[in-house]
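dumping this here before i forget
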Amino acid sequence: ADITINKTGGEVDLLSALVLDAASQDLIIQEGTIDLNGSNLTVNGSSGTLVVQDGGNLQLQGGETITANTSNPQLLSGSTVTYDGSGSVTIKDYTYNNLSITGSGTFTASTTQTANGNFTQSAGTFTAPSGNFNVSGNFAHTGGTFTHNSGTVVLNGGNQTILGNTTFNNLTKSTSTTYTLTFASSSTQTILGTLTLDGASSTLLSLRSDSTGTQWRIDPQGTRTISYLDVKDSNNINATVIIAAGTNSVSSGNNTNWDFVTTYTQSDFRWYENIN
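structure:
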């Protein structure tokens, strides 16, 4: 028969390998957590499926073998896969919804990776893809070490939030819809390569602090590609000013080391002469 996990608290832990190989036999994680706990999982009977639903969490150390009739688990919207191991592993080449790194180990992604929900790292070392790491939800790096691996983090969702302090290689968010990218106040995002932040005509991309009036910090050390932004409460701590003039961007106040001025008048030069 099918096995369904539906728990409002606690978790189901495997103590040995679990094999479900009867025809049409499903393992459904509806709510709560199943922790593979280092044991292998097989769901490969004809027409049988391994499904993680909204609210379900598939937790593993990372070295376990997961064999599913459909090749990969069905990770539905709202589902989570959590890596909690202490060893060195390559994370599964899945299209994740929510991806969480909580273990103390070293976790390496494949060349490209997708999280259609949130990416959360609270411990361990996570080596990002050398290509694109697509994140459609929030990007939360609150603990552990995030290694950029010369790749690009692409924020391709709607309204999104960046939490914690992270050093990126390239960071990109481009949208043709009016969205807001929110940064944790007092946090610092360092971009060694290319920073790309683009809205569109009549649909500006808003950059905001999660605490109005408290600045978020950014350190873009390489190329800046920006357009159609609405910026507020930002402190560019890099020595080079971010030139927003001529990019169809606007300031909503409390920005440091950004230049939004597009036209200088004679009075501007007189003021400059007076203070010098």
